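Entry for adenosine-5'-diphosphate complex. Fields follow.
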Amino acid sequence: MKKEIVVSGIRSTGYLHLGNYFGAMRNYVKMQEDYDCYFFVADYHSLTTHPDPKDLKANVFRVAAENIACGLDPNKVTLYVQSDVPEVTELYLMLNMMAYKGELEKVPTFKEKARNQPDNVNAGLLTYPVLMAADILIHKAVKVPVGKDQEQHLEMARNFANRFTSRYGEVFPEPMPFNFGNQLIKVPSLDGAGKMSKSENVNATIFLADEDDVIRKKVMKAKTDQGPTEHNSEMPDYIQNLFLLMDLVCAQETVDQYKTAFNTCTIRYGDMKKQLAEDMVNFVRPIREKTIELHNNEALLQKILKEGAEKARVSARATIEEARKIIGINYY
Ligand code: ADP
Ligand code: TRP
């Protein structure tokens, strides 16, 4: 039986973190067994906010290394760099005719980025969801493993696909966001103010490259209070966040034990944070070490990415030919 097609990408804007891991990469690693997977480094997307040529290559190679260190097997998936597959940009151009200025201007991620960089509100920022749709539709993906913050972009990709279908005919299936737990995930930052992120909240984000002591320091700084004074009190959101993080890296019985301690007012947040820090350290260490080893082997990474691009282009070329033909671009 033909396997379902899966696409997802991560921008090369910095070091990967626990949000990327639990929102996206954990699913990638599970999906590689049963799906036809295309995973890529979204370097063009990163230029909308991080245009510095000096950082680009190192970031691209590190994202690739971190993906492999987390368990992606380049023999099972197609791992490539977005800019190595120019067919994506051709489809992006076609899909721009399916996207309306008004709807693009309303996208919250666009508004937020425009606010963060008022001197560089470039058209690439505005059409970011169109390029993302092209990434997905170029391989006719039906499942897209992403974190909760990408839900709206996925909805837009479906809208562009459907408009293309009603104008020209069926080339693209509808891509759906995917997470093994069904609900998409948002990993909160340690200060409780938003999500862990590559470029914001860096002191409240645990990176897969963080040294053991850096992790301990960040976790110990997380906000707590004196603890509850009444049994079964409502949990403040910053404590809920800590429990959410514990759910990701600690054993279930450890989490249960601290929940009981909270409900019976015997909780010691200092101990809880120490436990959380140690479990995070143990989780991150092997990934960090493997990433360093891979990142030092540029020849191997180059080989993997070049082979990935070749495989990705076969699928991309077939889709572009179909799209050109149905649009009427077949003159000779
Ligand atoms: P960032 O927002 O850190 O720059 P990207 O935009 O490149 O990261 O996101 C890559 C993937 O990681 C996407 O699928 C995104 O939904 C997911 N992701 C990023 N941050 C989080 C988070 N804090 N919680 C859950 N998923 C996240
Ligand atoms: N926009 C995504 C993010 O910021 C990254 C991305 C680009 C992506 N193209 C994609 C994710 C295609 C899934 C599929 O996280």
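NOTE: The domain at 202-291 is CATH 1.10.240.10 (Tyrosyl-Transfer RNA Synthetase).
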